[in-house]
Each structure stands twice: as C-alpha cells, then as structure tokens.
Amino acid sequence: MTPDRALRPAPAAPRPLALPHFERHALPNGLRIEHAERPGLPEVSLHLVLECGAGAEPPRLGGLGELTARLLTAGTPGRDAIQMARWLDRLGVGYRATAGYAVGAVSMHFLSELFEEALEFLAATILDSEFPEHEVERIRRERIDEIERQADDPATVAGLATIAELYGDGLYGRAAAGTEATVSAIGTETVREFHAERYRPGGALLIACGDLDRERLLAAAEARFGAWSGETAPVSPPETPEARANGLILIDRPGSAQSEIRVATVGVPHNTEDHHAIIVANAILGGLFNSRINLNLREDKGWTYGARSSFRFRRGAGPFIARTAVETGRTGPAFEEILREIEGMRTAPVTDDEMKLARNALTLSLPLQFETAVQICGKVSRQRVFGLPDDYWETYRSRIEAVTPEEVREVCRTYLDPDRLTLLAVGDAATAAPTLDGLGPVDVRPAS
Amino acid sequence: MRFDILEHTLDNGLRVVLQPDTSAPLVAVHVMYHVGSKNERAGRTGFAHLFEHLLFQGSEHVPREHHFKLVQDAGGTLNGTTWFDRTNYFETLPANELDLGLWLESDRMGFFKPGITQEKLDNQREVVKNERRQAYENRPYGLAFETLLARAYDEGHPYRHPTIGYMPDIDAARLEDVHEFFDLHYGPNNATLVLVGDFDPAAALERVEAWFGEIPARPVAPRPDVPVPARGGERRALLRDRVQMPRVYLMYHSPCYADPDFEAVVILNYLLADGNSSRFEKTLVYEKQMAADATSFTWPTESAGMCFAVATARPGVAAADLETEVRDVIDDLLRDGVEEEEIEGARNRARRGLLNGRAGFGDRADAIAHAAVLRGDAAYINDAFTRYGAVARADVERVAREVLDPSGLTVLHVVPEEETS
Lengths: 448, 421
Prior knowledge:
The structure holds two protein chains of two kinds.
Chain A (H helix, E strand, L loop, with lengths): L22 E4 L5 E6 L5 E8 L13 H7 L4 E2 L2 E2 H11 L2 E6 L4 E8 L3 H13 L5 H17 L4 H14 L12 H5 L3 H11 L6 E6 L3 H12 L21 E6 L6 E8 L8 H13 L4 H9 L3 E8 L7 E8 L4 H17 L4 H12 L2 H4 L3 H13 L10 H6 L3 H11 L6 E6 L1 H4 L10 E4 L2
Parallel strand pairs in A: 2-8, 9-13, 9-14
Antiparallel strand pairs in A: 1-2, 3-7, 3-8, 4-5, 6-7, 10-12, 10-13, 11-12
Helix pairs in contact in A: 1-7, 3-8, 9-12, 9-16, 10-11, 11-16
Chain B lengths: L5 E4 L5 E6 L5 E8 L13 H8 L11 H8 L3 E6 L4 E8 L3 H13 L7 H20 L6 H9 L14 H6 L2 H11 L5 E7 L3 H12 L22 E7 L5 E8 L7 H12 L5 H9 L3 E9 L5 E9 L5 H18 L3 H17 L4 H14 L5 H10 L3 H11 L5 E8 L5
Parallel strand pairs in B: 2-6, 7-11
Antiparallel strand pairs in B: 1-2, 3-5, 3-6, 4-5, 8-10, 8-11, 9-10
C-alpha cells in the first residue's frame, strides 16, 4: 500500500509513559536515599547531593564549594591522590564532583556489577578526605588557570559579563566556581572546615537509578555511610535584586569573527505560581527551533547559526537570557530584532498555532526526557534541590496544557520589561559600534 | 548485554537495520548516507555539510520550516551531522509517531529536488558561514584541526579539508551543485536506515517498505580512494591564535574504524589520557604540572585512521617544552611497555563508555548506523563490548609501536598571537 504523502501521517495510539517511581528511604544518621530500579542495561547512575554550593560560602571565598568538590579525590589516610586515581581508573567508573550555586553533587555512572566498590570509593571521598596542603595548592592553581583561560572564549566572556551586570556583587553575579581573586584567597584549613561543616548526612541525598535492587542498595549504603554523622542546614537562595534600568554594553574584542550577543534581565526562581506559563512563553519566544527569535534571526535573516532564550530556574531568581552570535555588521540589527520579538510577546497574544506547538513540544517530549538512568537521576535531583512538588512531573502535562495565551502575554509583561533589559555584545567595537545607533548610549569597554 | 539486530535490504538497495527495545515508548529513526566531505570536489569544500542543512528546508510534500516543527510538535528531537565519510539525519520520536519519521525521511530521500530553491540555498549558506564563524573562527583553538589536516595530508587527499569547508568555497556553491550532489549520493542504495525502539519488527518493516519502497535506486558515484599517507618523516605546523596558553597537537596515522586493531588503539588512548592515573594526566598534569589538560583519541574514520594526542600548556610553559614532555611520556611507554593494571582499567573505562553511548535509543541508532555503513557490520554494536574486553597487553604494546611512530607524525603548535613557538 502506497501511503498518502500529501499529509502528515496520523499518529498511532499513544503508548503510556510510566514515570519512574522513586522509593524513599533514610539511614538513622539522616541520609536520605531515593531509589528507582531499572532493569535492562547493566548500568547504575548515582548522585550524592549535598548542601555545599556557592551559596554556603563567604563571598570573599567564592569558589570554595567547587574547590572542595574537586579535592574529594585528593587523598585519604590510606591513599594519596595517585592511589585514589588508580583505584577509580581501574574500576572504570565515571565520576564527577562539582558545585553549583545551591548544592554540590558527586555523580557517578558504572556497570552495575561494580556497585559495591563504586560506593566504597564514594564513601572514602566523602568521609575520609584529608585535603593535603600540597593538593589544595595544586588544585587551586589549576582552578585559577581555568578561570584565566575563560577570557579566551568570547561566549564565556559574554555570559560572565552579563550576570555581573544583572546581579552585581550578588551570588548569581559571578560564576559559582569563583573568580581569580576569591579562589586565590582560599586556604587549606578553610577547605577542611567547609568540608567538615557541609559534607554531612543530615541534609544530604543519595539518588540511585539503574540495574540495582533495594536490598543491595540499602545494605551497601548502611555499610559505607552508616558511621557518617552530623547535619547541615539547606543553602538559602540569595535575595532577588532590583532589575536594573536599560544598559547597552559593548566589550571590545578587536578582530572578532562575530559578535556574541546577550539580552538579559533578572528572572524568577524555579518555584513560582506562573512557572508553567513562563515555560510556554519562553518556548515560543526562544526555546524551540521554531521559536520567534530563531526563525527570525536564522531562518529568515541568515545572520546567525542559532538564537535562543531561556529562564535559568534556581532556588533564587536566576536570569533570563536571550543569546546569539551574529556577524559583526549585524550587531545592532540583531539587538533590534530580539527586542522586537520580546515586545511582540508583550503586546499581542501568541497564535493558537504557536500555543499548540509549544504545548506539544513540552509535554509529548516527556518520554525523551526520562529515557536513560543518567537523565532520570538528573531530573529527580533537580526536583528535590529546587523543592518542587512531589507530583511536579505527574501534573506537568495538565498544567502546561492549562496555560492560556493571555497568561503567556501576562508573564512576558511581568518579567520581560523593556526598560529593564541589559544588552551586551562581545565583538569588534570598530565595526559593531556604528550599527548600534538608536539603541541608546553605548558603554564601550576594553576586553580584560 | 546483547541488542537484537534484524537486517533487511529493500529491492531498491536501501539497507534497513531494526533493533527492537520496548524499555521506553520511543523510536529512533536514523538515516545514514555514505557520503561526506571526502566526496567533495576541489573548490567546493564544505558542500556536503551545506547540503545537509538544505535537507532540513523541506521537500515536495513537506513545507519549509515544517521539518523541525513537525518533529518538535510530536515531542521529538532531531538533527543531522556531516563528517568525512558519512552524513546522517535522525529523529527520536514517541513510538506512536514512527510513520512521521519515515514520512519525513523518505520524502527528502525521494522528493527533495522540487522543494529546493535559490532562496533557501542563499539563506542556509549564510547560516553555515555563521556556523563557521561561531564554532571555528571565533573559538579558541577553533582552527587547529583544519590546520593539522592540511599539513598531515597532501594536496588532493580526501581528508585534507575540514567538514565545515573554507569560506570562499561555501560562497561558491550553486543550485546546480545541489542537484548534482543529490543525484550522485542520495539514492536509497547509498543509504542505511536504522530503527531503534518500541515497535513490532514485522510491522515496522512493512511501514518502511511502504514509505521507501517506491524510491528508485540510482547509480552510486564511485567512492574516492583514501590512501594511508606514506610515513615520510615528521611534519610540523604553527598556528597563531587569540589564546593565552599554547597547545600542542600530535597527529599519527592509525588503524581505521574497521581495522582489527582499532579497539587496541582506543584502549591505548584510554590508558594514555583518560583518568587522573593515565600516563599524560599523571605525568604532565599532576607530577610535572606542565599541562593544564591532556587528551588522546582516535577518529573512527572509514579509511586512513587518525590518532591524536593534545595537551594545553600551563602558564609559562612553552609549546616546544610541552611537546618534548608529551613525547617523553610516549617514548617511556614504547620503551617500557604497559602494566596489566593499566590495561584492565582502560578496558573497563572503554566498556563503560560504550554502555553510556548506547543507553539512549538515538545514540544506539547512531552507533549501529556507523557500524553498518563504515564497517559493513551492524552486529559490531554487540561485538564491540567483547572486543574491547579482549584487548591484551601485547596488543596495546604492538599497536603503540606501530602507531606512535615519529615518521608518521604531524605536530601542530597553537601559540598566542604575540609569542613565538
């Protein structure tokens, strides 16, 4: 039978998606454990989430959380850094420890047959790390080098300058991993104290997903983490700053092949009443390939490889950022088009066609968002860290579908105030500046 | 761990590989064409990639901007990529939208030409030029591989130019080139369709036949000869870039993806530079603190393999000194061999990497398509796990001697604009 090519083929009956169910357990010391068994591939994804992010640091020691996380494999009483590395590398476990603004996390991925030994390794890094002076010194220098090298990449420069402009000295105004000045000020004792205070079972969460049953998980968790003790308070979100008045900043990078462009403002925390309307609004404005910003700048004008926008949802009010990179001569026009698209979201209701696309893209993609053990661990981790309702994903579809075009316009009017948008470009000022006429006074700055 | 693989070839030559898996209500649809940047002619570098962009611009029955829109509207994801040897197009969809994926892929395979216009070509040409600016020219070290390939391969070698292409060549592309390229390379008998996910194999094959069966086979252009370059001595290149730290690239001619020694080279890469106890990390980053980072990897090309070692200098370390240190580590390995524990760890890391790269249906379809097209063996998806596990110390030591041979080495130093090497 030759099918009819003239029309999009009708979908078959949808197959149900079983969202993963996480069983909750706790050890007597307060360590919370969440577990979803997924037979199938012989793999396990594991997250240990701790209240040890940048929000727990003194601002003058920004990056302490990240530095401490990086030092977890730098030595225990029985093993130095090289021996720890040989242990991990022999197992072949995927391991990453990092700190964000609120929490820090160790994430691991390994063959399920290695679960017990992987957990033994994790426990050694969390409970027994000694933070030898020379290792702290070494990792601190590596971090400072990394921070210096960020200046090589115009996209990174644009991102860091944008958040600094929005949040000033506030927590979200700097990279969670710190700056050269703050990382330089961190000493060994500070790291040890931070670890002693923040790496505690009360307030910590162990998430496991994969080919692993409850008995194995709980037996090993009790054996390895049972003797751990203490409690840590959650990291509070920062105060939301007043969104600043309009500014236009051009960071000069002579000879740049393009301008990296950002249009940004202070956004909202993850947990807000109008959360779902914001998600729909952003999908239409700049979240999807067929969003207004991307269709305009890429598929209509051809000025860029891509343009998009996002609200960064955190415990506190993360930024809204629209971003693109355009040929230098289009710097001003690209700003104008992005501003026009934002204004369009505020003044006229979005179309039914746009609403349908956003709704479907957001809700019908749930099976893709919960496909692998690694993805599922990440999802549940975010849900707990940001204090989302337990039925967040179960109700996600109905709440997205309930959003109206009026609500979309309303959140754009509330959160995307044209008088409070920061415009920033990193590019060749000699070529870019003349294209900015009509956008207001330009603050031209040299690249650092 | 074994994935069920079912293979079938349609009368028009389209190779079909089915990998049913009911663990998620999804289906990955992946079409790989056996054409890439190596098929481009002089003056038209970047064309295979520009062409890939055009295949997202609609076809006879799919209006412009609808390809992305329909997939996202169904809750799917999609993309396409171009490489030396192949170009692929893929989407992962809810399982009940299998027909949507097959319709979109068969329409651009069988009914592309009526949809293409000069306007679409001009628009995507600008998009691609901006991709080159954003992802290569305006990125630190972004032109390193292009510089390295141009030095390692002689004029006329099919791997000599970058997939993104050179700017004047992107400008030179014409509508006639688009039609010609399609005719030469995009017939069903030059393509492999892979489905991974929640479907009944017999029913899925019936749908594939329905959508693709009517597309006629076409003569396939002869594939270019891709010779392994002679090892005529070391070659060197220098690139000045807007970076603070020098970076050193070593590129060796190496077994290609289908070579029986491919897995041993990958294990060698793992023990050289994956993990803090690896040779490069331990010596260059940890002990001597001369490198900020160090990696080693092999590109799984169809012919003429490429094995790389790349290290970025710490402040105050010159490229020449870093190169000496990297080569010392390699010489130590060649002289003293490797330890059993290193091999065991490298095997375990490689196997975990394979597992991680096959967990998602889209990634798995990609791995199957590569195995089917570049090795002619879809079942390699399963065998790879065993083969990596079977790499022995003697294998690694032998391939290390064969591959890490200075007579086949090309060295690139990327240095800050104001410095000398």
